[in-house]
Amino acid sequence: MPHRVFTIVLLLFASPTLACPSAARVVIPADASEVQFVLPKRLADAPTGSQFQQQIAKLTRDQREAAILREVLSGNVPESLRRLIPIRVEATNAAGAKHIATYFVMADYLAVGTDDDFFRVPITPVTATVIAKQLDASLITAKVSDDVFAAAQVKLEPKPLTKDRDITATFWQHHQIIEEQLRDKRRGLLVAGIKKDVVLTNRLKEKPHKVAIYGWHHPDGRPIQSLYVGHADWYVDYSHGVRLMSQQIIVDGQSLKLTDVLQDPQLCPLVSSEGPIDAAKVRQAAMWAQ
Hints:
Layout lengths: L7 E4 L14 E2 L6 E4 L11 H8 L4 H13 L5 H4 L2 E8 L5 E8 L5 E3 L4 E3 L4 H10 L2 E3 L2 H10 L2 E2 L12 H14 L9 E2 L3 E3 L14 E5 L5 E6 L11 E2 L2 E8 L2 E4 H6 L15 H8 L4
Parallel strand pairs: 9-10, 11-14
Antiparallel strand pairs: 1-3, 2-4, 4-5, 5-15, 6-7, 8-15, 11-12, 12-13, 15-16
Helix pairs in contact: 2-4
């Protein structure tokens, strides 16, 4: 497949700068920019989600990862995942200065197919990082996972499974359970409570070749999974989900890059609950590319 360059489209609309209400520090703002992931147009003969799950049902893990990567980068992604959801947050740094930011996340977890027939596909952080790089995006942090749940327009009760957690058939079974929970809900709403997030964290520096997972919140906000870095980076099970966020972030009215904000000691509280995160150094320490 020829190399393609993917970009973020950012459309700024003239509107006054609004402070976050003190009673609602995590909100979906009505006046936010429109941000989209730009992918190739989905091919007419690309497999739907149900067709794709049949195609990968008997593949090895590595073959499955390669198939998912190929479909996503070729544009076989639901339209509702291309249009990102803005989340506005505020944070006060150690010096007492308050900052306001709007960042942009996928409405749901990474999937293959169409809005009418798609398949949420758990993947390794290695594959997720390749996709994120092509889309000028990033894995979310545990803090952003909490924010997403707080702002979510649809909060579902988690439905854990216990048998054959790491096989494609169970991935599909869990996807269908979620779809039943979402019956009659329109696509494109910010959905939470359905999976654990694959996240970016400084704890990945502890040992190489690990995946970090966090979240899967109950309706009352309690996460099933505390931040955990015990699994090898090749391990994937039905409960893992990748929700990417754009590298575009608006801080105090200025357009900045997420990786810069994550590293900034004064601004990082907007997107991190563990202090500054150098994403490049975390990925290098995790040795995901090796």
